[in-house]
Amino acid sequence: MMYEVVIPAAGQGKRMKAGMNKQLIELRNEPLIVRTLKVFENDEWCRGIIVVINEAERTQFEQLFSRFHIKKITAVVGGGKERQHSVYNGLRAVKNSDIVLIHDGARPFVTIEQIHELVNEAKEHGAAIPAVRVKDTVKKVCDQFVEETVERSGLWAVQTPQAFHVSLVLRAHEQAQKDGYIGTDDASLVERIGGKVKIVEGDYRNIKLTTPDDLLFAEVILSNWVSS
Ligand SMILES: Nc1ccn([C@@H]2O[C@H](COP(=O)(O)OP(=O)(O)OP(=O)(O)O)[C@@H](O)[C@H]2O)c(=O)n1
Ligand SMILES: C[C@](O)(CO)[C@H](O)COP(=O)(O)O
Question: Which residues constitute the signal peptide according to the record (predicted)?
Answer without folding.
Answer: none
